[in-house]
């Protein structure tokens, strides 16, 4: 076991069987004291299974591990992505807090690309284009897809936005169905410009458009985009210093900016910048991303909870769990430390979730009475963008009720009807769902992920685990197409079945 976890385990032992209900009842100030506010986000951690002393120990660990120093290193462009020898400067895309030459240069590149993106969007706005299709996958899809969906109340209405990610061509087919190629622009987003799915979908879209005039690209590999047939004037740059899953703040956010306008996009960046300043400058005891990260580590390593649920009580945030699955699980799904040695702690929890109240009618049964305790992040929005105050009151009442029910449980003489309770959750309340608050919310999770990775000694910015499957798929392609044999016997048997139906 990692030595830094020992005092935390000692805290858990001291707390013994303390329950959430007991913690709140015995400490009347806890409900308010265990909360933090940053700009448009209020966070309440009172229903996490730690008392003040345990929290103090966690904050002590944060200091001992020099987490504030690690945060400064991130902003200043230290080589935090060790296996690829790169910085991870997503903060330079939205705030001016990074010091030194590397961060300054990145900011300059980001500013210039941002201006070019604004010009491209202005040109499209002045054209006859009515629809824009974002073609990309993973980080080149999930962030833009989430943000365009979440900010639907902020859309200018100038364009309809569409997304094609899956190599399953039925997605492209269904998206293109009903679109007019003469009034549609395509933006091919791929940091590497080597992602098979995106290149195949890009080729489908290129053929469908019949002209390269409305084909745009975003890539760190400009030469490959040009070789693909995209006019160099329509290729917007990104860089190896920004990770794909951290890239929606860059030109990768083209579709977001097209949807909500450059002013809206700047508000989105501004919200993230607000969280950046807070993450970098606020003391450990008042630092929201740090508290979020310490809570995650406590739940994973001290309480041994293997999964984490994210439960947005806002239909506009329904894609947030899917977005976070990449951010969290691609970043933290590691078993070796940055030096290659095995980790001495459990790392990434399985992240899952869905929008309330719908999820209450699907998997909440397991949250309340299943044998695994699942910590949850509830995300609510105080002011809706619609006028149906009655519905919104019901939505918020359900959010509050679920967090309360999970924590307090309910005894019953009939064991089928008893709720064990003592199930932890955090409640995040956004004043309203705006570009600013969404930017701040995403940046909160980004920083939390980085801090968790720092505590575990792992690299949050590489993803070698996705390569093997890609390689095997490449090797298997001839066999799937009936031009070869698979080596693996199970795969061979499955191919026989597939071909038997051919
Ligand atoms: O933007 P690209 O280079 O097409 O990559 C898409 C995605 O593929 C991955 O490299 C691996 O799944 C992700 O990290 C990335 O966001």
UniProtKB/TrEMBL annotation:
Pathways per UniProt: Carbohydrate degradation; glycolysis; D-glyceraldehyde 3-phosphate and glycerone phosphate from D-glucose: step 2/4; Carbohydrate biosynthesis; gluconeogenesis
The reaction(s) this protein catalyses: alpha-D-glucose 6-phosphate = beta-D-fructose 6-phosphate
InterPro entries linked: G6P_Isomerase, G6P_Isomerase_C, Phosphoglucose_isomerase_CS, SIS_dom_sf, SIS_PGI_1, SIS_PGI_2
Keywords: Cytoplasm, Gluconeogenesis, Glycolysis, Isomerase
Listed Pfam families: PGI
PROSITE patterns, A to Z: P_GLUCOSE_ISOMERASE_1, P_GLUCOSE_ISOMERASE_2, P_GLUCOSE_ISOMERASE_3
Record-annotated active site: 330, 361, 470
Keyword rRNA processing: no
EC number(s) per entry: 5.3.1.9
GO MF annotation, one: isomerase activity
Location of this chain's protein in the cell: Cytoplasm
Highest rank taxon of the organism: Bacteria
Protein task: Catalyzes the reversible isomerization of glucose-6-phosphate to fructose-6-phosphate.
Family per similarity comment: Belongs to the GPI family.
Record-given protein name: Glucose-6-phosphate isomerase
Organism of provenance: Luteimonas vadosa
Gene: pgi
